[in-house]
Specification:
Blueprint (H helix, E strand, L loop, with lengths): L2 H18 L27 H8 L2 H9 L14 H8 L2 H9 L14 H7 L4 H9 L24 H9 L14 H8 L2 H13 L5
Helix pairs in contact: 2-3, 2-4, 3-5, 4-5, 4-6, 6-7, 7-8, 8-10
Length: 208
């Protein structure tokens, strides 16, 4: 066998050995660690960025953003990383996502925005204030017609109600039952809280 024959035979054996192997072949053009951020990573359709946002893991969020993660990817319920972070009260993550270009007014399949989520889940007043400061739409409505202001009654969100009223939330909007925010508060709130909220509406020019 000549020199060329020996080389060809040797390369053929190497190629056959690789093709029989169950291990993936990684070339210099396909470095390890590169992932497709548009593909869901779990059963909820969430990417690594979304899971990090949900957990308040600012380090991982920063890393994923620097690597090009889709800041507005929606999971199976149409929730974005920003909505998940706001829902759980992770202010540093909320700030990082907005700086990266997150859609502040994106709504999930139920019509809930980041602002609505922060209002409804309580103890998120700092996030409510921040989102309002950054220009979140105060008057978006859920699929049932509820606005962020209407939702303040359900958890006695006095501070959130004041933030929204000061910022000019529309008090005349009605939900699917024809009720305004003040109607909701009067129907479902009681005692001193009800009186306090009614006073806020008077103070900031809301309907009487």
């Amino acid at each position: 066998m000549g020199l060329f024959g020996k080389i060809f035979s040797s390369n053929t054996k190497k190629r056959d050995a690789v093709s029989d192997s169950h291990e993936p072949t990684i070339t210099s053009e396909e470095p390890q660690g590169i992932i497709d951020f548009h593909e869901p990573t779990d059963g909820n359709g969430r990417t690594r960025l979304q899971n990090a946002a949900l957990q308040g893991d600012i380090g991982t969020v920063t890393l994923q953003l620097s690597l090009g993660a889709n800041v507005n990817h929606k999971d199976r319920e149409w929730k974005t990383p920003l909505q998940l972070a706001a829902l759980k009260g992770h202010l540093p993550v909320v700030k990082a996502l907005l700086e990266a270009g997150a859609d502040i007014d994106s709504q999930d399949k139920y019509g809930v925005s980041a602002l609505m989520g922060a209002v409804e889940d309580g103890n998120m007043d700092s996030i409510v204030a921040f989102l309002v400061e950054k220009g979140a739409n105060l008057n978006l409505q859920r699929t049932n017609g509820l606005t962020a202001l209407m939702s303040t009654w359900c958890g006695r969100r006095q501070t959130a109600a004041e933030i929204l009223l000061k910022a000019g939330a529309d008090t005349s909007i009605k939900n699917e039952d024809g009720m305004t925010a003040l109607d909701c508060i009067r129907k479902w709130s009681t005692g001193s809280y009800k009186e306090t909220i009614e006073d806020l509406f008077k103070r900031y020019g809301g309907q009487q």
